[in-house]
Amino acid sequence: MLKDSNIMAVLPAKDINRAKEFYREKLGIEPSESMEEGSVMYSCGQGTRFLLYQTDNAGTAKNTQMGWETDNLEREMEELRGRGVVFEDYNFPGLKTENGIATASWGKAAWFLDSEGNIINIAQRS
């Protein structure tokens, strides 16, 4: 059943137009389809998708809400920084970043906030 079905992330946005601009300008992603008023769908690699919808609850989660896997984290970060994306630095027990990158036995990862305060991740497996 579900184990064979595609999944999609669902992200909140207080201002859907501001969010669409962020994803276009900073991440280079255009909506693949418009849904009902106040929401858009984005298509990414291998059939993955995410829905962005307008709600006042955006930016309230304190956890990673969506992430991409890459084969070259530093290259992706360099390109995104060139577009104005700012990566978070963390220093928690079990999670410390250096220049925005956390390294673990499984690989490395970085996090940034989108225009709506959602925590987004990019990861590279070892």
TrEMBL record:
Pfam families: Glyoxalase (PF00903). Residues 5-125 form the VOC domain. SUPFAM superfamilies: Glyoxalase/Bleomycin resistance protein/Dihydroxybiphenyl dioxygenase. InterPro entries: Glyas_Bleomycin-R_OHBP_Dase, Glyas_Fos-R_dOase_dom, VOC_core. This is Glyoxalase/bleomycin resistance/dioxygenase family protein. The lineage of its organism: Bacteria, Bacillati, Actinomycetota, Actinomycetes, Micrococcales.
